[in-house]
Amino acid sequence: MDGNGRWAKQRGLPRAAGHQRGVEAVRTATYAARDLGVKMLTLYAFSVENWQRPKTEVGALMGLLELYLKKELAAFVRDGVRLRTIGRTDELPAGVQKHLRMSIEETKHFTDYTLVLALNYGSRTEVVDAAHAYASAVIAGKEKTDDRSWATFNRYLNTSGLPDPDLIIRTSGEQRVSNFLLLQAAYAEFYFTPVLWPDFTKADLAAALADYAKRERRFGLTSDQVRPSANAATR
Ligand code: FPP
Question: Is the CB of 6 under 6 A from ligand 1?
Fold first, then answer.
């Protein structure tokens, strides 16, 4: 969700105002994705690196996050949105943690649509945490020392139980991954748009999904293997 700062700067506003409008775009995207048939939406809201931003900006973001969670829970329950998080949420302010716990608990039974908030998330931290937990499990005799399967290690990532992302959208014209779901994105499709996050609308999401729908995903196979009938016609 990149471009909040630039959106604010273009209007001579403080960066926090951009984040505030970013929250509106979060609401829009949450329901737009669901309306367009998406089953799971992950929003990269705060990275482990974001703590290094000015104290005032970090404070504003945490305040917005807490307010958002407080306000949104009733809508999540009304609309059947399951909330989950990825990231070291135990390092977030106590108020944010409290509202996260409540929201996750009260929406855990919903199955149609999941909103995943990446909070204090970073892929490298996630891998270190997973390796540590996996090693501890091996030492405790809960995992086998000779199991080198991805399926087993995958269970120790923050995203345990969640599918890999099909499409990753980055707004604001930046074309970087920025420590986001590096392992889970092994076969993800990427979409980059110049639109700043606060301006990102349902139409922008629909355009990204339309672009994604035209792609052929091969997962390491050949085109003939994944679409035998379509390719036979052109041979
Ligand atoms: C990146 O844009 C954005 C962030 C670091 C924060 C994203 C947070 C929100 C949209 C609001 C809070 C989230 C929720 C889920 C309520 P930037 O600030 O780096 O923009 P810039 O590159 O233009 O400076």
Answer: yes
pLDDT beyond 60 at 190: yes
CA–centroid distance, 54 to ligand 1, in Å, is 13
Verdict on whether the full-model pTM lies above 0.85? yes
Is the C-beta atom of 170 inside 6 A of ligand 1? Answer: no
Q: State which ligand 1 atom lies nearest to the alpha carbon of 53.
A: 5
Q: Look at residue 195 and tell me whether its pLDDT is greater than 70.
A: yes
Listed in sequence order, the residues at least 6 apart from 169 whose beta carbon sits closer than 8 Å to its beta carbon are 190, 191, 192, 193, 205, 208
CATH for the 4-124+164-229 domain, from 3.30.43.10, 3.30.1360.70, 3.40.1180.10, 3.40.50.1860? 3.40.1180.10
- For 40-77, the pLDDT digits (tens) are 999 999 999 999 999 999 999 999 999 999 999 999 99
Q: How far is the CA of 3 from the centre of ligand 1 (A)?
A: 7
For 103, list phi and psi in degrees, rounded to 5: -65, -40
What string of DSSP letters covers 75-133? HHHHHTEEEEEES-GGGS-HHHHHHHHHHHHHHTT--SEEEEEEEEE-HHHHHHHHHHH
pLDDT of residue 231: 72
| Model pLDDT, residue 94 | 98
CA distance 174 to 47: 16
Asked if the model's pLDDT at residue 235 lies above 80, the reply is no
Atom number of ligand 1 nearest to Cα 198: 10
Task: Report whether residue 23 contacts ligand 1, using a CB cutoff of 6 Å.
Answer: yes
CA–CA distance, 181 with 219 (Å, rounded to integer): 17
